[in-house]
Design a protein that fits this description.
Elements (H helix, E strand, L loop, with lengths): L6 E7 L4 E6 L1 H4 L5 H7 L3 E11 L5 H4 L4 E5 L3 E6 L2
Antiparallel strand pairs: 1-2, 1-5, 2-3, 3-4
């Protein structure tokens, strides 16, 4: 269940990784729209409470259980909200 100001999203990255997690879109876009947030983000998007649906080929175990995942927005192929 998303926390306040958190939006559940799923995204695919250039290396084939697919990850699902929560992002605070209000940080990136006052209206809370995913497309605006991704376009206005500086360099990275921060995902919390994430899970890999298709993990990266390297170091998946080392990054699978951390509090936050920083994703370079230029590596995002597609993203969609789940809520």
């Amino acid at each position: 269940m998303p926390q306040e100001n958190q939006t559940r999203i799923i995204m695919s990255l250039r290396d084939g990784t697919v990850v699902k997690g929560q992002v605070n879109l209000k940080v990136y876009s006052p209206m809370g729209r995913l497309s605006d947030g991704l376009n206005r983000a500086e360099d990275f998007i921060v995902l919390t409470d994430y899970i890999f649906l298709y993990p990266p080929n390297h170091c998946a175990e080392e990054i699978a259980n951390k509090e936050a995942l920083f994703i370079n927005r230029m590596q995002i192929v597609w993203a969609t909200p789940l809520d």
